[in-house]
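worker-03 picked up job from queue 'complexes'. Input manifest follows; two sequence lines, order preserved.
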Amino acid sequence: MNGRLTVNFFELIAKDDTTAARAGILHTDHGDVETPIFMPVGTQGTVKTLSPDELLENSVQIILANTYHLYLRPGDDLIREFGGLHRFTSWPRPILTDSGGYQVFSLADLRKLSPDGVRFQSHLDGSHHIFTPEKVIEIERNLGADVMMVLDECTPYPCSFEYAQQSNQLTLEWAERCREHFEKVANPHGYRQFLFGIVQGSTYPEVRQVSLNQLIKLDFDGYAIGGLAVGEPKESMLEISKFCAEQLPKDKPHYLMGVGKPEDLVDAIALGIDMFDCVIPTRNGRNGTVFTWQGRLVIKNAIYRDDPRPIDEQCDCYACRKFSRAYIRHLFQAGEILAPRLATLHNIHFYMELVHRAREAILESRYPEFANDFYRQYHLENKDSVLTA
Amino acid sequence: MNGRLTVNFFELIAKDDTTAARAGILHTDHGDVETPIFMPVGTQGTVKTLSPDELLENSVQIILANTYHLYLRPGDDLIREFGGLHRFTSWPRPILTDSGGYQVFSLADLRKLSPDGVRFQSHLDGSHHIFTPEKVIEIERNLGADVMMVLDECTPYPCSFEYAQQSNQLTLEWAERCREHFEKVANPHGYRQFLFGIVQGSTYPEVRQVSLNQLIKLDFDGYAIGGLAVGEPKESMLEISKFCAEQLPKDKPHYLMGVGKPEDLVDAIALGIDMFDCVIPTRNGRNGTVFTWQGRLVIKNAIYRDDPRPIDEQCDCYACRKFSRAYIRHLFQAGEILAPRLATLHNIHFYMELVHRAREAILESRYPEFANDFYRQYHLENKDSVLTA
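worker-03 finished. Artifact:
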């Protein structure tokens, strides 16, 4: 599918004996990514509050950036001129860009959907724009991410069977047009880019099946499961993920978009998911919620006023090596920027450690024990549905 | 003046031949500080946007923290319990605390000044408090800074001769009470703390003279020149600084409070000032103004939209090694926290490099050449009076 096929993109390394969990490697021209992997969200070309060096120090292997945001500001033309996102942002490792579809439907004003594409007004300045499948491919080529996503409509939850079906037809047409245009337009930056299809169909297995059949025929480099983590019950999320993951090609990476909480990752990895992205570790961190192996902790709470312990005594991130809960709480109370920095840093470290431990468990074929150990320690405060990205 | 006098606090190393510029060392139990020095402001126990490690990486030797803020939140009792500010904040090098007087007069509500001290209401929650000279010494002992400042009234500019005189009398009485109480109350943390007197007297040499005579008699570990950088013309600031610096003991450090712009530091060092603090590098950084050897630069301006150069091509800070003006401008436009982080980091690096180069010039007795070189390169956009802290 790409010019330089000397190294296959996805390499499957191991499979757990009793679950569908897989360990693999994504080979990109910006380095390898060990799966299962979590991708921190860097919407506007920066993972909020963190520097690229901090991401590297905390074993981040690939980040996600948002096509919609970067197209509007600073513009994909400018980023192309700077040699692509890696050079512009000084992030040397792989990047994945979404297609912008999700943001057009959640952020932009006055959207108008047509078979050709979607017209919208910028949420920043009201300017008029259109995203067609072809346009989005060109933008993503300019941005230069290692992994590009096709333009799709992410259906809201709940949505009717009819809506899911119709929307899926459009998404499939767009996927085909993206696939074709991807072949026509080269990467201006020279290195390899890969294109993922996105399975839609809401919570309807029949619609998901149509999506799967058609997308698999188009032979993408990888497959995402979209339209989940949008408010549906966790059971539906896992059920649909399982339904899709079982049918997706085994030799291609499987990416569950917008998921999720630590426990969601543990569950979805068991179903054969290889890649995740979610704003939870960064957004929650900025709001003062941090993750530990014992569960979530709201560091701003008064009970931490004089707590000399680190966020997590088992953690060796910079925040935990250097600072007490009392100091971090003080920083949040005082509105200091170091507060969201330290909480985000810790959360990203925690997520990377979580997928790393999951991978180790898969390589040793003891994923169920790993998941049981995780659940035994991890205190679930509530049974909320997975937060949306 | 202190228990362990095995090492003198201030050591004068060199004097420039043609100016009054001096190079010295402050010996503290948290390490040495090479003067002339700039002290970044860490009001609430953090230099805004930066981590302690970033301060260390950028050669910061001593930071300032605000007694008023830390007394109100999280409380000097809590910080004492944690072993003092160094341990609480994870900053291993020296710290100076102001007396809180300046903030009481600029931030607190319903201030009531009496010979005993100053009553005020917290700007945070309206709670009632009183700062007496004795109380402030006890708070600063609890905070555990290496250098403590006496309680004073920083006169506003302009103020009448009579007001300056009266205020100065009160400030001198307070200085004496601080000096006495400092001897009575030990440091709960064990290590040495030093106490500085603060010369007041507004822009009136006669009043400054009274202040100088009295404070020198009290034999403080160091002397600050207060009541400047509050809106007076730069000429007055330099004139009064010169008047004071010439009469201050040569074997004690001289600290010009709240100053200032890079050019102010260059000028005041020539008058014999050893220590500076100011919010300019941090506050301006957060607002998108950065300092270069060619002058100030407003990085948010549209002309930097596609500028591939670093902030300063002569600078080797992390921001300049890794990022373009275009990217940093984008981060400011997008409201990303990495923007104020990088701009602040660069500015602190610039200020530390400035005082380092000044010190080198003094050691080689070529301070006038250094100052001329600085002014030849540095573009002064306007002749504003020095910004207040």
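worker-03 released lock.
Residues 1-5, 383-389 of chain B have pLDDT under 50 and may be disordered.
Chain B touches chain A through 37 residues (CB under 8 Å).
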